[in-house]
Amino acid sequence: MIGLSLNFVIDLQLFSEEKTEKATPKRRREAREKGQVLQSKEINSAIIVIVSFLCLRIFGNHMLSNLLSFSNSFYKEYFLKSDMFNTGDISILMMRIVGIMVIVVGPITGFILIFGVAASYLQLGFLFTTKTLEFKLSRLNPIEGFKKIISKRSLVELLKSIFKIVVIGYLIYKYAISEIYNIFKLLELSIESIVTYIGGIVFNVGIRSGIALLILAIFDYGYQWWDYEKNLKMSKQEVKEEYKQTEGNPQIKSKIKEKQRQMAMRRMMQDVPKADVIITNPTHFAIALKYDKEMYEAPYVLAKGADLIAKNIKDIAKKHGVPTVENKPLAQTLYNTVEIGQIIPEELYQAVAEVLAYVYSLKY
């Protein structure tokens, strides 16, 4: 019996810690600050592959002509005169090699950087954090490292790698088979034509590989979103604790509100002796009115209350000699429509003026 009871308690504890609640804005903000963001690296990879091969297509002739021009120049000016080389010639040659590399590789590198940064920005926005660079002893834990190796995420990454290898391998195989009979004809072509022909095959394989990677990236983004939301989920207890941290303990908050209400009530009661008249209905409502033409253009409510508060207002008024006038319709309307500190609405001017005229006639 004891064993059954213990098992029941443990199950309840496990259930209470189950993360079933959606992440709060605060939880998402903290995760982002730690570098935990929604991102699919496959999108970056696919875009970089597609952009790279499109750049090869666009700038291919430009690159090829520059390389051939440099090769001819190198052959004539340096290779045939290698026995006449000196230190100055070598430094000039190195500068020319660097220059041709910038001309050939520069445009492709520039476009890859631009589109790579754009792909990351569209997913992450602007994000700079050093949290991911902080040293943590847990990263040196071999057990934790082994868990990561055999984790679900590692399995997903393995499946993605297999998919890439299979797709790219299939595309290369398909083009190799379809072009196998044309390979023998290459011997009859010029070097420039051979390079152009091979470049066309590489471009077709590359673009199709990029499209396949982009399709994979779309599915991967969906998986990353699901996994990200799942990891951010909170238990009911975590939501309660966060609420306490941000909004304060509900019990303390309730006590503060009660204290504020009491202080407001005390201030209101202190203003009752300043009133010109107390209008009642006669038992349920009591409204204290004051007319000070230097402050407001019309009479305003100093205090109001129902039942016990109304009784207290009438008692204080009686103690300080403030007149009380019974007017049930006017009392109900004032209580329901005018807040403390507000002037009376225009439609009540006549009724209140008659009451004040009566009160002033008693005084003077």
Please provide a brief summary of the model:
The chain contains 13 helices and six strands.
> Averaged pLDDT, please?
79
Described by the principal axes of the CA atoms, the overall outline is: elongated
Oligomeric status: single chain
- SSE order, one letter for each helix or strand: HEHHHHHHHEHHEEEHEHH
* Alpha-carbon distance between the two ends: 87 Å
C-alpha-based Rg, rounded: 42 Å
Sequence stretches where pLDDT stays below 50 over 5 or more residues: 1-16
Across the major sheet, the strand order is 5-4-3-6
| Count of the domains | 2
**What's the total helix number?**
13
Q: What percent strand?
A: 5-15%
Summarize the biggest pleated sheet: 4 strands, mixed
Classify the helix fraction into a percent range.
55-70%
**What is the strand tally?**
6
Structural class: alpha+beta
Structure, explained:
This protein is an alpha+beta fold. The chain has 2 domains: 22-243, no CATH class; 253-363, 3-Layer(aba) Sandwich (name from scop), CATH 3.40.1690.10. The protein is built from 13 helices and 6 strands. It has a 4-stranded mixed β-sheet with strand order 5-4-3-6, sandwiched between helices. Strands 1-2 form a two-stranded antiparallel sheet. The longest helix is centred in the middle third of the chain and has 42 residues, at 191-232. It is elongated. Residues 1-16 have low confidence and may be disordered.
